[in-house]
Amino acid sequence: MSDNLASAENGGQALIATSWDQAHPPEHAIDGDDATFWVTTGMFPQELVVTLPASSAVARVMLRSVGIRRISIHACPTEQPGAYDTVLPETEIADGAGSRQSEVFTVKMEAVRHVKLVIHAGWDHFVAVNDIRLDGRKLD
Amino acid sequence: MVSALKLRSKVVVLGDSGVGKSAVTQMFHSNGQKFPKNYLMTIGVDFCMKPVPVQVADESRATVELFVFDTAGQDLFAEMAPHYWEGSASLILVYDITRAESFHNLAEWLERISRVVPVESMVSGCVVANKADLRERAEISREAGEAFAQRYGFAFFEASALEHSGIDAPFAHVAAATHARYTDSLAKLTAAVS
Ligand SMILES: Nc1nc2c(ncn2[C@@H]2O[C@H](COP(=O)(O)OP(=O)(O)OP(=O)(O)O)[C@@H](O)[C@H]2O)c(=O)[nH]1
Ligand SMILES: [Mg+2]
């Protein structure tokens, strides 16, 4: 049985981000609603950290976004965010001509507390992260 | 209370050596306090950040933090410069009104940066005719400068770093254009998912 561990319902939190517009806060990336989004407010790289309520194993990252060009994903096992391991090296994703991007990344995170998305470049100056799902299970 | 929106933008300053790119940038950054009287060639790049408030229609406030990269005009640094231009959203081209050559070279500067960042993808561009205090020695008319700017859809400004006149206008223009582009992008990002 696997769950979307990023969702607020399951205790996921998005508290650390490099951009903050009160109309499009980081929480919008994990609220399970595709119509809401976290927006970057200028320059790259941009970062967003999703914090899980407990140590978990994550097998897939599902991302819905608009305008992202290059992304990498990193995982941190400790309760206090510290050193991150790269689980997805910098990867280019297709433009979609300004429409929605929908990506699934198979990753290996065995015991993770924080998942960091780094957006290295955009197809436009400002990009949106509509939804992040972390598919996995809590460790006992 | 409505908290202020903070945007960020990278701006590059380009043009021949000695036209006053560093003087313009430093006078902007220091609010007119630091005019570099003696020429000190920029080695590679000088960098500064300054928040610029922008006028917003409603009662909310917005600030654009301009990350200004004042790059070297000396040929010596021609290979390094493109590295510093990467990721720039706006450009400010500077020429010296008393040196026609510095004006004629603007097209070459544009071509060089286009190889790194497509100019049509940029948020804004400005042409700054500097050293307006030396008007009696001008080799390039205001009209010629304006015509060049217009050809590329850039805004034109006359300035004197020495007299601290016309210095803030190009940066205010970049900040306003950045905010306008953000508003536009938000509308598109919203439309993409509805
Ligand atoms: N009269 C006058 N002199 C100026 C003005 N702006 C700059 N200068 C002088 O022009 C010289 C060159 O200025 P810089 O700002 O260092 O030139 P730059 O374009 O940064 O040159 P590089 O770093 O080599 O690319 C300095 O001696 C400045 O004092 C101005 O508005 N009026
Ligand atoms: Mg200089």
From TrEMBL, chain A:
InterPro entries: Galactose-bd-like_sf, IFT25. It comes from the Eukaryota. GO terms for biological process: intraciliary transport. GO terms for cellular component: cilium; intraciliary transport particle B. This is F5/8 type C domain-containing protein. The lineage of its organism: Eukaryota, Haptista, Haptophyta, Pavlovophyceae, Pavlovales.
From TrEMBL, chain B:
InterPro entries: P-loop_NTPase, Rab, Sigma_54_int_dom_ATP-bd_1, Small_GTP-bd, Small_GTPase. Keywords: GTP-binding, Nucleotide-binding, Protein transport, Transport. The keyword Protein transport applies. It comes from the Eukaryota. The keyword Transmembrane does not apply. GO terms for molecular function: GTP binding; GTPase activity. Signal peptide: none annotated. Transmembrane segments: none annotated. One of its GO terms (biological process) is protein transport. This is Uncharacterized protein.
